[in-house]
Design a protein that fits this description.
The complex is a heterodimer of chains A (304) and B (272).
Chain A: E1 3-5, E2 8-10, E3 14-16, H1 23-30, H2 32-36, E4 43-48, E5 61-64, E6 67-70, H3 79-94, E7 108-112, H4 117-128, E8 133-139, H5 155-165, E9 173-176, H6 184-193, E10 198-201, E11 205-207, E12 228-231, H7 236-249, E13 254-257, H8 263-271, E14 276-279, H9 281-285, H10 289-303
Chain B: E1 9-19, E2 22-28, E3 40-45, E4 61-64, E5 67-69, E6 72-77, H1 82-88, E7 95-102, E8 114-120, H2 125-136, E9 145-150, H3 153-156, E10 165-169, E11 176-177, H4 180-190, E12 194-199, H5 202-215, E13 219-222, E14 238-240, E15 246-248, H6 249-252, E16 255-257
Parallel strand pairs in B: 8-9, 8-12, 9-10, 10-11, 12-13
Antiparallel strand pairs in B: 1-2, 1-7, 2-6, 3-4, 3-7, 5-6, 13-16, 14-15
Helix pairs in contact in B: 4-5
The chains are: A alpha/beta (304), B alpha/beta (272).
Chain lengths: 304, 272
Amino acid sequence: MSVEFCGLALRHPVINGSGTFDAIAARRAFGEDLAASFPFSAYVSKTITLQPRDGNPPPRLWEASGGLINSIGLPNKGLEVYLREDLPQLADLLGLAADGAAPGAVPLITNVMGASAEQIAELLGACDARPEIAAIELNVSCPNVKTGLDIGADPRQLAEVLRAVRGRTSKPLIVKLTPNTADVGACALAAQEAGADAVSLINTLRATALSPDGRSRPRRPWLGGGTGGLSGPAIRAVALAQVEAVAARVAIPVVGMGGVQNARHAQDLIDVGATLVAVGTETFRDPGVGARIAHELQEIMVGR
Amino acid sequence: MSEAPFARRALTVTGMDELGAYRLLRVADPDGPEPQAGQFAMLAAAERWGGGEEERPYLPRAFSIARRSDGESQFLLEDVGPGSRRLCELQAGDRLWTLGPLGRGFVAPSAGRRAVLVGGGVGIAPLAILQDALAAAGAEAAETTVLLGFRDAARAEGAALLAGARVATDDGSAGHHGLVTDLLEAEIRRDPDVVVYACGPAGMLEGVRALCERADTPAQLALEAHMACGFGACFGCVVPRRGGGYLRVCVDGPVIDAGALERVDEHAGAPA
């Protein structure tokens, strides 16, 4: 069941979606149970930005039909504090030695986001210097300060930014594509041509909810951030279509995610071309689900 | 604080008791960790969770652990939305997904201070297990004051969950006609050497917080918030922290020292 992904030997194909599992907080809640049976074969951090972010004002959640709209706003302590405080804790939890490569360890993938090529270059450079980080995932669902357009929403802009930053790290670079674009396959191809080692998708679909007080005029958005992103079973069919479209266009590995709740859903993504599958919102409902999906996938594979 | 097993567990409902307008859900959990007073669990019915109005509920719901006795955990429910409605339908023998105990609970009063328990509505739940814990730690029943506020007499029947409660109702149909904070104000005036433990709706908690701040009385507030996960993953359940930034109710709370909050904001969620 072990999988090779961008030069990393992973125990199984199930990882977490960025921002859906805070390993440090989870260790406080679940104790050493977590370290003893870490559910994911690689751990993807929350999105890290250069400067600290508080995140969006509440309310931040809306339960939709078969899913969740969130408007969290990427709260994080910023690059400097992440590297200084979180990285040693994560290395300890994941079993990483100081050189980052311990047998049996869970490789760490750090997710970063910047609003310009300059910001992204700085983030990649800082992560490149840290042996605990096995790979970097770049969140391109961020408006470009120069154009106002999400960096990953346009193939040409995405390629331009990636070419400008690619040289800053020799670690594997995964581009987390945005689904909020006209042609996700074209964006994936652009990422590959600009030097991405892998792509991951889908991120949440832009979504909103109105305040349930139907009498107010004008109707107000429910979420403090105005709009948010939809995840969960509601987006699974969209994810399958986008992963299929992307896998058909690129030669680099694809990390598929979106509404995965069980091994059958994970197998669907693998069958349309995903190398790894990420679990996100379902982990909110059951933190043990990643391990269960990995186990069940193994049984499916053996049965084939 | 007690740590939770790292996966949700399917438990069996042992009973559903009526308590006025509320329901007391009882669940067999002989092997579960002993919760600390103030901790909570994420609950979801094992069957028919989803498929209700607008295909909800989808996420599990956070409930304070109201009481723990003889291997049984108890939760106080009020039917306010698709999640709590489905949970209220459960009967003995039904299965329930449970994740917990989660979060930080109440801290025992420092020497020389009496506990005053202040609850509102369904938020009285964690005060029951706290009263049990205080009694087990040797506090005389007479030392602990319990003040509970409800909308009306039907809800005030929930006060039976705790021993020796004094009650206030919004409509005057039971006990003091007015707010539970009226009772608290008089209590603090009578004896200022107390620690206040409070749980209830945001408006009540803000009243308690402001009153205790003025009186320089230490207070621990058990907050309610909608959360997707309960273990720090989703960052959805935040409240503003005094001095800037946010606290996650699930892992920084649900019991938060009143001094850490500028105010308790009214951003109560859509019916859960």
